[in-house]
Amino acid sequence: MSLTRIHNFSVSLDGFASGEPQSAEAPFGHAGQRLHQWMMATQSWDASGTAGVDNAFAQQHDPGIGAEIMGANKFGPPGWPDDQDWKGWWGPNPPFHTPVYVLTHHVRPPIEMEGGTTFHFLEATPAEALETARAAADGQDVRIGGGATVVRDFLAAGLVDHMHLVQVPIVLGRGVRVWDGLEGIDEGFDVEVVSSPSGVTHFTFTRKVPS
Ligand SMILES: NC(=O)c1ccc[n+]([C@@H]2O[C@H](COP(=O)([O-])OP(=O)(O)OC[C@H]3O[C@@H](n4cnc5c(N)ncnc54)[C@H](OP(=O)(O)O)[C@@H]3O)[C@@H](O)[C@H]2O)c1
């Protein structure tokens, strides 16, 4: 069965998954790189990186994934819909290697990139987007790639089967919040926690099997 998965989703102690303001120079706003330093230190990001607990989680991002859904603000900085040449942050060969569905109110034709990534632009409810992505994933799982708004919307719609969330020991104070409106969301999941020597805490939320 094709699952809906979230991986390496990094959140500050006070629940922000991005700082502010987002811009071409600062995609995560005032958070800079601090939310993802744990991941960039691992072997799965850089061959000379660490091979411990953080890497064990980070390397689960890609296997078994046949499509990604992401939000418009992950795909580009504010104003990208006005730039017909914008093709995402990731260069000619983006690291997805699958169809990627960008949820946006500024729909444009698909962009085929090198390495198997095609960006499709979709104005749809989370459930409709998931149905489309699942059909493209050809039996494999669908990853919800963020940002915070899209993760929150998919959780609120009850569409997430597995979420790997990483709590990073920083206080951002402002940015885009994840948990608003999700009161009690944990009750639908088996939640496990692993502390890493690096200082981050890994949470896995696995959807409870109905009894
Ligand atoms: N912490 C992490 O692990 C992590 C992971 C990924 C990304 N990020 C960061 O998170 C930030 C982006 O998060 P965000 O919450 O600002 O935005 P987002 O979730 O990336 O995108 C939200 C936007 O997507 C469009 N959208 C969402 N649902 C839609 C729907 N159903 N139909 C049509 N359009 C829809 C809307 O944009 P329009 O109306 O403008 O089209 C909406 O404002 C970036 O800084 C990114 O780098 C963090």
From TrEMBL:
InterPro entries: DHFR-like_dom_sf (IPR024072), RibDG_C (IPR002734), Riboflavin_Biosynth_HTPR (IPR050765). Residues 6-181 form the Bacterial bifunctional deaminase-reductase C-terminal domain. It comes from Terrabacter ginsenosidimutans. It comes from the Bacteria. PANTHER family: BIFUNCTIONAL DEAMINASE-REDUCTASE DOMAIN PROTEIN, DIHYDROFOLATE REDUCTASE FAMILY PROTEIN (AFU_ORTHOLOGUE AFUA_8G06820). This is Dihydrofolate reductase family protein.
